[in-house]
Amino acid sequence: MIVVHELTKRFGEAEEIVAVDRVSFTVRPSEVYGLLGANGAGKTTTLRMIVGLLTPTSGYAEVDGVRSDQQADDVKRRIGLVSTSAGLYQWLSPREMLEFFADLYGMSAEQTAANLARIADVLDLHSFLDRRCSTLSTGQKQRVNLARALMHDPPIMLLDEPTRGLDVVGSQVVFDYIAHLRQQGKAVIVSTHQLDEAARLCDRFGLLHRGRMVEEGTFDELCARTGCNNLVEIMMRYVRGDEALRESVTA
Amino acid sequence: MSQHDAQSDGSAAAPGNLRPRHFLGRLTRLTLKELREILRDRRTIITLVLMPLLVYPLLGVVFQKFVLTLPGRDAKYVIGYGDRRAHFMLASFFSQAEKQLHELRKDGEWPLPPKEQSQMELLTDFVKHGDPPLEELVGEGAFDVGVRTRPLQDAIANVSPGPPRFEIELVYQRESPASMAALQHMQARIMAWQDYRDQLRNQRRYLSLLPVVGGTGLIGLVREEELREPLQLRYVNVPNQTRDVYGISLATVIPLILILMTITGAVYPAIDLTAGERERGTLEALVAAPLPRMTLLFGKYVAVVAVALLTAVVNLVAMTITIKTVGLGQALFGQAGLSLQSILLVFALLVMFAIFFSAVLLAVTSFARSFKEAQAYLIPLMLLSLAPGVMSLMPGTRLEGTLAVVPLINMVLLARDVFAGETQLSYATVAIVSTALYAAATLALAARIFGTDAILYGSSGTWGELLRRPRHETASPTIPMAMLALALIFPLYFAAQGVVASEDLNRVPLLATTATLTALLFGGVPLLVALLRKVRLRSAFGWRRTPALAYLGAVILGLTLWPAAHEAVWLGKKLGLNSFNSDYLHQINERVRDLALAPAWLFLTAMALSPGIFEELCFRGFTFEALKTRLSAFGTIVISALVFGAFHVISTTLATERLLPSTMLGLILGWIAWRSSSVRPGILMHVCHNGFLMCLALYQLGRFGRIETVEGVLRWFGLRSQVVLDEVEHLPGQILLLGTIGPLVGFLLVYLATARRGEQQPAATEPAAE
Predict the structure, then answer these.
(1) Using CB atoms, which residue from B15, B287, B767 is nearest to A106?
(2) Which of A1, B54, B153, B220 is at a distance of 20 to 30 A from B249, taking alpha carbons?
(3) What is the number of domains present in chain A?
(4) Are B280 and A155 within 8 A, CB to CB?
(5) Please, is B32 exposed, middle or buried when counting C-beta atoms within 10 Å of its C-beta (0-12, 13-18, 19+)?
(6) How many domains does chain B have?
(7) Domain contains B203
(8) The complex's ipTM?
(9) Is residue B172 within 8 Å of residue B235, measured between CB atoms?
(10) For residue B105, what are the domain limits?
């Protein structure tokens, strides 16, 4: 269970840049939560604060009752993070890299072997498990990253734009993976630009705009509240609102 | 899901609070992963293997030129003879030796001389009446090599019949390339002549024109027994007294090469494992793992040190081959040439350089967000690193006093002293310990910035992060904080000691300064670190309430542990922990007796109260609380006691007999601190222990007059009031009995007072804030 309460992050010497502004939401086990928003809306910063990689300016994120700003290690142990900018160790094989990360999370050799076999089946890694990471395709690299986040079998998964740069086949692997996570009873937060697929996959949505949570609810709730037919329309309303405001100011 | 659930489902143990064995296992695996990644990279192999293969032959040629052409005196060298016999003995066989050398070289049995040496011309001069001694003339550069004869004093010479025999003394200057070149020239001829003599001996021929070495020096027939005796040579190295350009010692250049060798090996892995990791996008996943950043960084540090040492080994092999090929062994390493011992010494120094430099490089590259940025940071660092090497060339710069704790300079000077054979163990130890502490402190600083959001996401400034106070207050100091405090205290204490000693203060100002310095360093430095890192002060120093019975136990321990400490000194001596500096210790004891003539309150404040309070706040307070956050009771008590013991040995210029008693007291004080969760009983025990011994010293000096009761007690214990404890091997039985029963009672009281608390003692209280 993830509880985000009034989470705020400001950057800059005088903390003049507000990246995330009093955002609150909860995600339950077996639920896939779509964190949506345009570039710079504050999605990634929110996810980083939940993991404990960034310290909130105010507010807090709680994972299974443990606050990330107070007991970061306990929170990290419960989370699998797939970052948008995640890379691989070029000179290691996926197997070596996955075993290394399992070790960082305190897994025994037996647990690691069992989890690796299971995840390699789910993500179809077997064909390139012992090749150098530098020789893998973009899709294969992303699959290794998804596997890395899952190696310690965390109850919470945070996926930050997991389909960025992937083709249709690669994206489908990710979507299948998310469905698998839900099936496993994990609480999942997905931040993505592929709104159509998000609508199909996610149970609830939070729409971030300029650091604020402007809409939250199920797909039907959002459509009923905004009068729009899909997520793209809802998002564009806020973007156009900004443009209209800018034009009026200029005028 | 609760924490228990998280662990029971097999998904995650608690990597942050591992047992030492598990921690070492994980650290090894972390390091192996880093090494695997680094060594598979072709760029590392280029740095490791190709660079040395290219650089050393080039350096060898440059050195050869340096040794043999720098003098720039048309390759003329002056051999100064101290007496006519020496000239007669050497000059007379030189022509024959020259022919022999020519023959040997023609047959390929002797290496050809470097081109410059083949043009060498030796001029002959003599020490004249009224001239200074030969050593001085060579030291000043008037002669390149001095030669004189001395009557042989050995057993064979004394029992042999016939005229007295002589040895030839060759006086040279190892620091002068010209002197070394001339000496090499002469050595080649001496060896050629000996080779010729061996031939004669084998052929059992008589020759009429060979000089007789020894006797009156008259030319005559060589007798068979003389052919069997090798030429007796003695080498005398004299220090350079000119300090001109020719006086630049090659031994002083070696540290510069060592710096370059180590940096070459460590730079690439240091950048790759920090800034490179960030650039590749793997750093975020790494810091998202539930491990302290210090652990992650330490794994990288060990890998960088390992690669640096691997590079060093390749460099050493390349250097050895080059030196052997070019024939620079004697010029660089003296008469013995490049021996296995020299190679091991070079390697030992490289280990120290690698330990220090790898930490500095990691600290610098941890600030960088990209490879490019890291390289930009490292260029000034590398230039800066050469400065101490250049400084070691300066005349009069010695490894002593404050210089022994100046980072980098101390290691360069130590390297120079090692090669010159002038190492002072006390200063060498200070230099090594301080360097290790600096490396630890630098790593602690690096851990503060490595993987922070400033570096990961460029969210704010970087250098400012080091000094920026955390937003939230924390309860306990961290191990990096304790390492930083100790790394500051040690050199400051050493430097302050030197300054105080040089001022030659009288008793009162000296005692006042000592008390103040102890307070400022042992109390002030940890306080400053705690304030900067926003650690709650009471918990940072373990300043907690504890039952009154624990205080009573601590007082009894403080008053009765000194016999055990005394016996520990004796045991240490038996185990070979004798201070090589016994004169110094004696001086200290004399000094303490002299100081005891100052006002008693001041004497007791400086010698008992101030160290008792502030050393405890430092070792059983700040350091202990930091260790507690990550280690078990055993680890915390043992490590803090070892640090305490080592500090007392080093601070008294290696009075090694203090190791056992100080560590023993450290263990007991640590046990009390652990049981009571408080620094307060330890302070009381420390003050009582020191105070009792100082009061005894004051009484013996008659400062309290003659107190009959005390006299009676002393007599009962078998002690005369004038007894000097340091001079007694074993204490009387009554005192040993007291020293056994007293501590047992003290231990029991502390145990009973803290019985419930001891069971509840937490191993780690601090969240992951670092």
Answers:
(1) B15
(2) B54
(3) 1
(4) no
(5) middle
(6) 2
(7) yes
(8) 0.89
(9) yes
(10) 70-247
